[in-house]
Amino acid sequence: MRYSIAISILVALILASTPMTSYAQQGQGGARGDRGQQVDRDRSFDRDRMADRDHAFDRDRARDRDRSGDQDKAQDRDRDRLRDPASLGNQDIYGNEFMSQAECDQYRQGLGEANRQQSRAQFQTQHEQKMQERALQQGQDLVPPGQGPVYGGEFMSVQERNQFREQLRLTDSDQQREQLKAQHRERIDQRAQALGFKVKEAQ
Q: What's residue 87's pLDDT?
């Protein structure tokens, strides 16, 4: 009798503990499943982010190639023009307003005979100095090809206008050129205001 009671109690304990163990295992399995799903989501997010970054990198690289290509084309055009100085029009020659037709022809010939890049740069530098001296002697404006009237030129001396034009001509960066123009404009506005006048916009 005692033996059968003990067996019954043992069986009851085993049956009572089985659902709890199963539930605990299911809970642990569910937690592991949630963590696995979170890891998968994180990996998917990282992959998407890497793909976006790679796409942006490729787009920037392509844009840089296009920009570099445009610069190379412009440089090629300049080199082609210098390789064939005969194609230079009088209006493309620095200081052409102080030169006769014969001098323009001599300039093209001299540029063509200066074969190496270094000798051409030296030839052009000497020519520019000569034109600057002529402009100074005659008290006239020296307007480089591609430039026009100077803002507030009526409030400046000839020498100041020529110096400002040279600064613009020798500035490589568009950003620096715009900064130079902004500083010049502010300086001229102050000068005109002190004199009680308004600056006439350059056409």
A: 87
Domain boundaries, the chain: 79-138, 147-203
Q: Which of 145, 150, 178, 174 is nearest to 164 (CA)?
A: 150
Torsion of the alpha carbons at 12, 16, 19 and 24, rounded to the nearest 10: -140
Determine the Cα–Cα distance for residues 157 and 99; give it in Å rounded to an integer.
23
Longest dimension (CA), the chain: 139
User: What's the predicted TM-score (pTM) here?
Assistant: 0.56
For residue 120, give the nearest of 112, 128, 109 by alpha carbon: 112
Q: 201, 151 in Cβ contact below 8 A?
A: yes
Judging by beta carbons within 10 Å of its beta carbon (0-12, 13-18, 19+), is residue 45 exposed, middle or buried? exposed
Nearest partner of 172 among 71, 101, 89, judged by Cα: 71
pLDDT in tens, 143-171: 999 999 999 999 999 999 999 999 999 99
| pLDDT one-digit tens code per residue, 8-22 | 665 555 665 554 444
* Tens digits of residue pLDDT in 28-73: 555 455 666 665 666 665 566 655 655 555 555 555 555 444 444 4
Cβ partners under 8 Å of residue 163, min gap 6: none
